[in-house]
């Protein structure tokens, strides 16, 4: 991975925990200790089970986090973009990462070491409180995802995923602004690649979506929402 020099003061990611707390005088000493680097598309920068090396914050780009499931199959548990935090699962509770992480496109990452993060948590209550709320929200999302797997059929899970990435990444020139392979869609929706392909083909025939390579565009957002309305997850 190539070393990058990203400056927090000029960062435009207003949702980043670090950016939100730059106004605090204490943060200056910690920002000076961070490391930044470029992770190329498809490159893995966190290995599940590897020793904890602090938290990562996305300066620019997109990342998928994965978890190993039954028979060693990886399942995508989270998709992230500019300003999001990576590697928080397991931080503070153990010495190993509980997830793996790959760049979905060339991505600039900022890393704060274990020692630096622990100092921030001990010294800056505002930051600690914000991180606590973040953990609570992520726990709620995880519980909802478990309920989805239990109550949604395959088509509903794929539809839910499409609405999620549309909401998260937006649509540019009629296509959702993220590239996901059919396998990645299946991994996130908790189904097989063949089933995901069949659902996408069906949605395309019904003129609810369109596809161009790995990109999907939503044509009938209200119709898709109505399909999972009873679950109230979108």
Characterise this structure:
The chain has 234 residues and is of the alpha+beta class. The chain is built from eight helices and 13 strands. The strands form four sheets. It has a five-stranded antiparallel β-sheet. The radius of gyration is 19 Å and the shape is globular.
List the main descriptive attributes of the protein structure presented here:
234 residues; alpha+beta; Jelly Rolls; Arc Repressor Mutant, subunit A; 2 domains; five-stranded antiparallel β-sheet; four-stranded antiparallel β-sheet; 8 helices
The class by helix and strand makeup works out as alpha+beta
- The level 1 CATH classification of the largest domain is Mainly Beta
CATH architecture of the largest domain: Sandwich
Shape: globular
Proportion of residues in extended strands: 15-25%
Q: What gap, in angstroms, lies between the N and C termini?
A: 36 Å
Question: What is Rg?
Answer: 19 Å
Number of strands: 13
The figure for the number of domains is 2
CATH topology of the largest domain: Jelly Rolls
Number of helices: 8
Strand order of the largest sheet: 1-2-9-4-7
Give the name of the CATH superfamily of the largest domain: Jelly Rolls
Mean pLDDT: 89
Residues in helix, %? 25-40%
- SSE order: EHHEEEEEEEEHHHEEHHEEH
Low-confidence stretches: none
Tell me about the biggest sheet? 5 strands, antiparallel
């Amino acid at each position: 991975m190539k070393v990058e020099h990203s400056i927090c003061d000029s960062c435009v990611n207003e949702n980043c925990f670090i950016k939100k707390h730059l106004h605090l005088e204490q943060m200056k000493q910690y920002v000076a200790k961070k490391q930044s680097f470029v992770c190329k598309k498809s490159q893995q920068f966190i290995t599940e089970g590897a020793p904890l090396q602090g938290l990562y914050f996305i300066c620019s780009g997109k990342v998928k986090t994965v978890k190993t499931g039954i028979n060693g199959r990886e399942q995508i548990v989270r998709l992230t973009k500019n300003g999001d935090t990576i590697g928080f699962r397991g931080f503070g509770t153990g010495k190993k990462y509980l997830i793996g992480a790959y760049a979905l496109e060339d991505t600039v990452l900022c890393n704060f070491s274990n020692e630096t993060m622990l100092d921030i948590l001990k010294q800056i209550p505002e930051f600690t409180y914000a991180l606590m709320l973040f953990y609570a929200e992520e726990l709620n999302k995880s519980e909802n995802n478990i309920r989805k797997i239990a109550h949604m059929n395959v088509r509903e899970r794929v539809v839910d995923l499409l609405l999620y990435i549309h909401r998260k990444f937006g649509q540019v020139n009629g296509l959702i602004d993220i590239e996901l392979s059919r396998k990645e869609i299946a991994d996130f929706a908790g189904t097989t690649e063949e089933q995901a392909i069949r659902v996408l083909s069906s949605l395309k025939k019904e003129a609810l979506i369109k596809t161009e390579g790995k990109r999907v565009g939503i044509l009938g957002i209200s119709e898709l929402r109505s399909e999972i309305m009873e679950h109230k997850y979108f």
